[in-house]
Write a structure and sequence with these properties.
The complex is a heterodimer. By secondary structure, chain A is mainly beta. Chain A contains no helices and 11 strands. Chain B has strands spanning 4-7, 10-13, 18-25, 31-37, 44-50, 53-57, 64-70, 73-79, 87-94, 106-107, 111-115. Classes of the chains: A mainly beta, B mainly beta. The A-B interface holds A 32, 34, 36, 41-46, 49, 87, 89, 93, 96-100, 102-103 and B 4, 31, 42-43, 45, 48, 50, 55-56, 90, 92, 96, 102-110.
Chain lengths: 110, 116
């Protein structure tokens, strides 16, 4: 069964700190790993994504680290800001169907 | 209008009512999706249409009936719902092709459904 497990469910970080969210998957056919960000009252929106041929991808303060052998990937938010407070979803897909993790509610305290 | 538009944004219905949720995408995409978002299962895929053909029906009860009349419009017809169906229903679209695309999902803002 295709499954993506995400942790933690919630996270509180001080402004300027590093937020780390982890995901693990089972299906080795997954070949695309995006992260989506959702603000209250809005739909999720793509934040950053990685393919398994690279171990890390960085866009501004957001970095995905990917460990193919462990079947794990994580999102790091450097210098976390109150505006980053949102729910974050990891996901994975081999084809048309995107499987989402359970979500992490991040709160960045001023 | 741009992006993915969902109407209505809020809907309250009784268990015997019939209502429909509407989704329209202005992105020229060829795939559309219905997701259910609740506290229990944050993002649960319900239906997928690719090139106006249904390609996925994720064990969804028959009281939910999707319709995709063209590549820009998607409906979710609701009939005899249960209180546990109360949730946020999200529509999304993506561009799927022969060559490997990212398949980025573009979501609408959702329709908040309350079943009394």
């Amino acid at each position: 069964q295709q499954q993506v497990k995400q942790s933690p469910q919630s996270l509180i970080v001080q402004k300027g700190g590093i937020s780390i969210i982890n995901c693990a998957y089972e299906n080795t056919a997954f070949d695309y790993f995006p992260w989506y960000q959702q603000f209250p009252g809005k739909g999720p929106a793509l934040l950053i994504a990685i393919r398994p041929d690279v171990s890390e991808k960085k866009e501004g303060r957001f970095t995905i680290s990917f460990n193919k052998s462990a079947k794990q990937f994580s999102l790091h938010i450097m210098d976390s800001q109150p505006g980053d407070s949102a729910t974050y979803f990891c996901a994975a897909k081999p084809d048309l169907m995107l499987t989402f993790g359970g979500g992490t509610r991040l709160m960045v305290k001023p | 209008e741009t992006g993915v538009t969902q109407t209505p944004r809020h809907l309250v219905m009784g268990m015997t009512n019939k209502k429909s949720l509407k989704c329209e995408q202005h992105l020229g995409h060829n795939a559309m999706y219905w997701y259910k978002q609740s506290a229990k299962k944050p993002l649960e895929l319900m239906f997928v249409y690719s090139l106006e053909e249904r390609v996925e029906n994720n064990s969804v009860p028959s009281r939910f009936s999707p319709e995709c009349p063209n590549s820009s419009h998607l409906f979710l017809h609701l009939h005899t719902l249960q209180p546990e169906d109360s949730a946020l229903y999200l529509c999304a679209s993506s561009q799927e092709g022969i060559q490997e695309e990212t398949g980025e999902l573009f979501f609408g803002e959702g329709s908040r459904l309350t079943v009394l």
